[in-house]
Amino acid sequence: MNIKVGVYSSGRSISDLRLRVSIHSSESSLMEKYKLIAKIKKGVFQGLCLLSSQTVTLKQLGFPDNEGVPGSLIKEITLLQAMRHANIIKLIDVVNHQEQSSIVLVYESMETNLTSFIRIYPKVMKIPRTIKELLRQILLAVSYYHSFDIVHGGIKPANTFIDPATNTLKITDFVWPRTLFNSNTEDPNEELGFCYKAPEILVEHKQFSTAIDVWSVGCIFAEMVTQKPLFSATSEFHQLAKIFSIVGTPSEETWPGFSRIYRYLHIYSHCKPKDLRKLVPGLEPAGIDLLHKLLYMDPKGRITARQALEHVYFQN
Amino acid sequence: QDEEYLRILLDRERDRNHIRSPVDDWIKVARSEAIQWIINTRAFFRLRFHTAYLSVIYIDRFLSKGLISSDKNWAIRLLSVACLSLAAKMTQLKAPALSQFPAEEYNFESNTIHRMELLVSTTLDWRMHSVTPFNFISCFIPCFCNESSNREFVSL
Prior knowledge:
The complex is a heterodimer. Chain A has 13 helices and nine strands. By secondary structure, chain A is an alpha+beta fold. Chain A folds into two domains: 4-108, Phosphorylase Kinase, domain 1 (2-Layer Sandwich), CATH 3.30.200; 112-314, Transferase(Phosphotransferase), domain 1 (Orthogonal Bundle). In chain A, a hairpin with a 5-residue loop joins strand 4 and strand 5. In chain B, helix 3 (49-63) crosses helix 4. Chain B is mainly α. Chain B has six helices and no strands. Chain A: Keywords: ATP-binding, Cell cycle, Cell division, Kinase, Mitosis, Nucleotide-binding, Phosphoprotein, Serine/threonine-protein kinase, Transferase.
C-alpha cells in the first residue's frame, strides 16, 4: 500500500491553503484487487478477487451527507471486523472508492441461499437431522451476534447461505438491513422480508431488541420443515393479521400491556391460536415445543438464542 | 460477569499493534501540540475524557505507520481533527459537526476532513475499538467503593 498525504498550495496566505489528501491506494485499488462480474441488486455486486481467485460479494455504501464517515457505519464496520464465527459470512476487506465518496465492503461469497437450497434439494430438507443441524447453526450465529448486543434485524432465507457440499450455514447482510432499517428506506423490492418480521416490529418501529431475530429464526424453522413461509401475507399491512390468525390475537394474558403499545388492536378480529402440529406436520414434539417458544408473541417471554440451543430438541 | 468483561478487555489490549518505529524529534513535538489541541477542543465541545484519550491512540497508531513524511504541521492538525471526530463518533451519542471544529490557523473544508477520516480508518484497518484505561474504570470503581451505584457518578 502506498499512501501519501500531499499538499497543493495556491501559493498565497496560509488560510488559503487548499489541502488535498490524495490516497493513491484507494481509487485504483478496488479495480486492481477485484474484478466485477455481475450486479446482484442496487449497490451489491458479485466479484472476483484477482489475488486469490476467490469469488466475493461487494457492497457499495455511499455517504449521506457532508459530515464525514457516519458514526453508525464506523461502529458497524469495527464490529464486523472483530467478528469471527464459522456461521457468519466474513468481511474480508474494506476499500475506499470513487474519490472517497463511497466505500466498498468485500465479503466472502456463497452461492446457495436457503430459499434456493430448499428448491434444489427438497429431499435433503426432508431429513429431520438436516433441519436440526441447520437450525443449530443459525442459532449459533444469532447468539454470537447477541453476545455483542447486536440486533441483526433482517434474518430471512435470502440472507442465509448454505454450502451444499458440507451443509455449513452462514448468515450475512447485517450492515445493510440494519442501516436501512434505521433510515427507514428499505428496498421495496426486497423479497418478502416482512414475512419474517416479529410482531413488535410491525406495530412499533422504534422499540426492538434481540428478540426480533429469535422470531425470524422461528419463521425459518417452520419454513425448513414445510418448505413454504409460515406467515405468508400479501403485504406488510396484512402481516400482523396473518400472525394473529396463526399464533392467536394477543390478550392481556398472552402479552401484558399490548393494547397500550398498539392502539389499533381492536381492528383485528379475535383469533385463537392454531395447532402448530397441524400447520407444521412432520416435526417431532420437541421441535414443536421449541417452535412455540421461538414464536412466542410477547418479546419479553420469548426464548433467547442461547437458551434455544440448550432445548431438548437438540439433545439427541 | 465483570471478570469476564475484564478478561475480554485484557485480550483486546494485548492484541493491539504496538508502536515500534523510531520516532523523529519533529514528530514528538508535533504530537504534543496535537494532544494540547485535543485537550482544548475536548473542553470546547465538552466531550468525554474517554473520547480525547481514544483520539490520541488513533493519532499514535497512524503516526507509527510513518505516512506523514516530513515536517507538515497542517497534516498533523488535520490528523488531530479527523481522529477526534472519529473518536467522538465512536463514543458519543452525538458528534460535533465537521464544520464546527476549531482548526485555528488552518481552514479545513468538511470534505477534506471527511477524506482524512477515511484515510485514518483505512490505515487503522477499521479497528477503531482500541482499549483505553477508561474501559477498565467502570469495573474497578465498585471494587474500591463497594457500591455499584457509584459507577454512574464518575465523569468519564
